[in-house]
Amino acid sequence: AQKITQTQPGMFVQEKEAVTLDCTYDTSDPSYGLFWYKQPSSGEMIFLIYQGSYDQQNATEGRYSLNFQKARKSANLVISASQLGDSAMYFCAMSSSGNTPLVFGKGTRLSVIA
Amino acid sequence: ETGVTQSPTHLIKTRGQQVTLRCSSQSGHNTVSWYQQALGQGPQFIFQYYREEENGRGNFPPRFSGLQFPNYSSELNVNALELDDSALYLCASSLWGLNTDAFFGQGTRLTVV
């Protein structure tokens, strides 16, 4: 069975600073994908970034980067130059293939302070 | 904004009633997945539909059922509502085999009283 653990219920960051949101995972599947989603108060899950288990390089998408450490089974999200609009819930998720459902962690609430 | 639309956005039902939630998928997508997100939790997988058939189900009782239509839109039906069914229900549309292409709707917030 797959499991995602997010140990930070809430995080605060100063505007324009960088922040790291932690995610560890557990799976016995050799091939899997790791995802990060942002959920504003409106409820919609917004896809941020994806990392495949066989990808050699860490994924980056604009201000988002994923610090993937396979041996440690961690996939931390780094947000650079935080903005007030980044305040939201952030979820780490994984799936073992393109067809299998996403397994989500409990999320981290990020608050960006002016 | 994505092309995935869910209706209604909010709903209040009484325990024991039945409810139908609707989801229109993103243009070009053929797979719809439904998730339940209780307050303070991450989404939990309910089931997935591909080519109008259920293709995978999470740990939810049979009173949770669904449909997918030829235009790939989908419905989630819940019978005999319980207080614990109060949650945000999210649908995600994707192309079969491409979770990285999944788009979520804004969700339906169901309250059971």
Distance between the termini of chain A: 41 Å
* Percent helix range of chain A: under 10%
Please tell me the overall pLDDT of chain B.
Answer: 94
Shape of chain A: globular
* Biggest sheet layout of chain A: 6 strands, mixed
Radius of gyration of chain A: 14 Å
H-E order of chain A: EEEEEEEEEEEE
* Gross morphology of chain B: globular
How would you sum up this structure in a few lines?
Chain A is mainly β. Chain A has no helices and twelve strands.
Please name the defining characteristics of this protein.
heterodimer; A: 114 residues; mainly beta; four-stranded antiparallel sheet; 51% strand; globular; B: mainly beta; seven-stranded mixed sheet; 11 strands
How would you explain this protein's 3D organization?
The complex is a heterodimer of chains A (114) and B (113). In chain A, 0% of the residues lie in helices and 51% in strands. Chain A has 114 residues and is mainly beta. In chain A, the strands form three sheets. In chain A, strands 2, 5, 6, 10, 11 and 12 form a six-stranded mixed β-sheet that branches. In chain A, strands 3-9-8-7 form a four-stranded antiparallel β-sheet, with no helix packed on it. In chain A, strands 1-4 form a two-stranded antiparallel ribbon. In chain A, β5 and β6 form a beta hairpin. The model of chain A has no long low-confidence stretch (mean pLDDT 95). Chain B is mostly beta strands and 113 residues long. Chain B has strands at residues 5-7, 10-13, 19-24, 31-37, 44-50, 53-57, 64-68, 74-78, 87-95, 98-104, 108-112. Chain A binds chain B through residues 4, 33, 35, 37, 42-47, 50, 91, 93, 95, 97-107, and chain B through 2, 33, 35, 40-45, 48, 55-56, 58, 88, 90, 92, 96-100, 102-107, 109.
Outline the fold blueprint:
The complex is a heterodimer of chains A (114) and B (113).
Chain A: E1 3-5, E2 10-14, E3 19-21, E4 24-26, E5 33-39, E6 46-52, E7 60-61, E8 64-69, E9 74-79, E10 88-95, E11 103-104, E12 108-113
Chain B: E1 5-7, E2 10-13, E3 19-24, E4 31-37, E5 44-50, E6 53-57, E7 64-68, E8 74-78, E9 87-95, E10 98-104, E11 108-112
Parallel strand pairs in B: 2-11
Antiparallel strand pairs in B: 1-3, 3-8, 4-5, 4-9, 5-6, 7-8, 9-10, 9-11
